[in-house]
Amino acid sequence: MAITFKGGVHPPESKHYTEDKPIERIPAPEVVYVLLSQHIGAPAKPIVKRGDVVKKGQKIAEAAGFVSANIHSPVSGKVKTIDRIPHFLGSYSQAVVIENDGEDTPAEELEPHPDWQNLSPEDIRNIVAEAGIVGMGGATFPTHVKLSPPKEKPIHTVILNGAECEPYLTADHRLMLENPDEIVEGALIIKHTLGAERVIIGIENNKPDAIETMRKSAEGRGIEVAELKTKYPQGAEKQLINALTGLEVPSGGLPFDVGCYVQNVGTAKAIYDAVVKGIPLIERVVTVSGLAVKEPKNLLAPIGTKLSELVDACGGTSGEVGKVIMGGPMMGLAQWTLETSVTKGTSGLLLFPPEMASVGEETTCISCASCVDVCPMRLLPTSIAHNAKYGRFEIAGKLGAMDCIECGSCVFVCPANINLLHYIRWAKLELRKMAKK
Ligand code: SF4
Ligand code: SF4
User: Fold this and answer.
1) What does the pLDDT read at residue 370?
2) Predicted local confidence at residue 432, as pLDDT
3) ipTM, 2 decimals?
4) What CA–CA distance (Å, rounded) separates 91 from 385?
5) Ligand with the closest atom to the CA of 413
């Protein structure tokens, strides 16, 4: 039987556009634009300069502190410049711009370790850090940091997140169908690194083929594959832990507080690539979909590929584009240009026509409590938002604003079109500022 958490919503899945489309590798672009800030933490520091010749997989920027990540060149060629380009969070940010020489000359900086069982946890953390791996489900938290929980918080359960609960996105679905053995091996490497006892791969039951494929691959390897009910936000860390183990991460806490570690299936594959094959994180699968894309696809693209080139690889746009989203429609980020580039966290690129971009006018709350019913964190979204709107941030904080996981479920169901999340995010921002004073 499929398991789940309390609350949540059922937005139209819209996965049929790409779920049967095998991952297609796009030719590496003539020029790549590799952002230095594409993970949580400090932007990486460039270690190349204009005119330098670089190899594919060569480190071009290094982590600027513990919570940061190395960045590698996805092509071989010459550094054209280091300049500001549009950033997916808005505004502009530094990127290493590299002209591809088309030779794919490998750097071979990382050593392959098919015998990874002989490596110590510290060795594996170092390889993962060196390979620049970050959470590929969109969180982009540096993985070597996540693999280093406090000593007093031992991990008993590793959970691989194959829920992919955001509508439209099918990148993880295809990865599970096409690379199940690498994902399973990546999960075992994580288990070995953390000294965990149990590994569970959670997959929503709208992907029965992925459940079957992963079960076959995991057979006899001490890994459970669990069927999750299709419901948004099933892939959120706290909801996933609760559904799969019954444990509840405390308010303000992290998964390691209940002995759990959650990692996306794509990240597990990246860990496999780095540890077993010696390949750093230089490419990823991106679902390009939405009603304004001519031929939606799952593309394997070098990090640094311009979003416009992804759209070109899908035959261009069909009609006018009214909205562009990087990621999924529920938690993704609206983009103002296609001139930014693919990063390690780019799971999707969605283009919609203008009629799908318009939001109804905000009206008065009718106290229907729909937002309360669906909130997976059991918060009172309407009360938090109302207090934030009138500047009563302390009250919003007491109501649990900081526990909001920003899933947008409350906004999705609100009949009054109130952008509750906008107000809650504002409260969180102000509360963080107040905490710093
Ligand atoms: S209040 Fe936060 S956690 Fe609750 S439904 Fe709204 S966005 Fe999701
Ligand atoms: S869903 Fe909207 S209208 Fe209903 S209680 Fe919440 S804020 Fe008010």
Assistant:
1) 97
2) 93
3) 0.99
4) 27
5) 2
CATH class in words for 116-277 = alpha beta
Question: Which residue, judged by its Cα, is nearest atom 6 of ligand 1?
Answer: 410
- CB of 380 shorter than 6 A to ligand 1: no
> pLDDT tens for residues 308-317?
999 999 999 9
Is 424's C-beta closer than 6 angstroms to any atom of ligand 1? yes
Tell me the ligand closest to 404's alpha carbon. 1
Q: Which pLDDT value is given to residue 139?
A: 81
Q: Quote the ligand 1 centre to 145 CA distance (angstroms).
A: 27
Buried b (16+ CB within 10 A) or exposed e, 4-36: bbebbbebebbbebbbebebeebebbebbbbbb
Instruction: Identify which ligand lies nearest to the alpha carbon of 367.
Output: 2
Domain spans of the chain, in order of start = 24-109+280-355, 116-277, 370-436
Contact between 347 and 328 under an 8 Å Cβ cutoff? The reply is yes
Residues lower than pLDDT 50 in the chain:
none
Question: How far from chain centre, in Å, is Cα 277?
Answer: 23
Instruction: Indicate the class that CATH gives domain 24-109+280-355.
Output: alpha beta
Q: Is 368 in the pocket of ligand 2 (CB under 6 A)?
A: yes
